[in-house]
Each structure stands twice: as structure tokens, then as C-alpha cells.
Predict the structure.
Amino acid sequence: MIAIDLPDEAATGALAARLAAVARPGDVIALKGELGAGKTSFARAFIRALGGTGEVPSPSFTLVQVYELAAATVWHFDGYRLRDPEEAWELGIEDAFADGISLIEWPEQFGALLPARRLEVALALGATASARRAVIDAPGDWAGRIAGLAAET
């Protein structure tokens, strides 16, 4: 586990950009945290770091937004409104997991469909209104890909 204090939204964006730089198709990044913890801001910065230039809306109501970017297709899921994990099949989750980079807000709503080999980023409110604390669980090859992350952000 890596814990990183993020003093402002720019620092959260820098963390997202660093992770985007090492992400590759087939990766799943689970974004955990309460409402307002910065999950969507993180996802926006991640998508922009991979070349997304348009609007990056929250997928709270659409449940998924897909971004065809030069580096990879990024699937941005929001599980907050899922009533049952099985509903994720209708969102194209198997295509996302096979060929895209998946950013998943409220990953606990996906239950057993969430792959074990995933990067988990838990965001929590910090000491000030714009500060956050990120706790990152990096299993498998993720650990090597993000080695030195705490020192870089």
C-alpha cells in the first residue's frame, strides 16, 4: 500500500497523469471513496493525460462513458446506481476489460465481476477543502509500474 497526501486538485491530477502514463489496455483501476472524494476529478485528469480533449462528464446517469483515444480506449464506469452487478454486462464490461483501460467509480457495486488483478485507488477528503489522501493498492505487475510513485507526486 502506498499513501499519498494530495494538497490540492492539481496534485490529484498529477497522480492521475502518472498512473495514466503506465496504464495499458486490459488494466482496471478501481476508484474508491465517498461522494465528493475526487473520483471523477481523478478520472478526468487521467483521460486528459491520455489525450482526451473534449468534455469528460461524470457517468453517474449514463453509467459508462467511452473515450476512443490514441493510446487506448478508456471506459469510465460509475457503479453508484447499479442495483445488481449483473447489470454491468449491459454496459459492455467484458469488452472494456479485454481491450480497454477501465476506470471504475464505486467498484464495490460490481461485486465478483471486478477482476482480482486491478489497481485500487482509495480517495479520502484531506485537511482542507481541496486536499485529498490517496491510498493505492498495487498488486502484481502494478507494483513495479508505480515504483517510486510517492516520491514523484
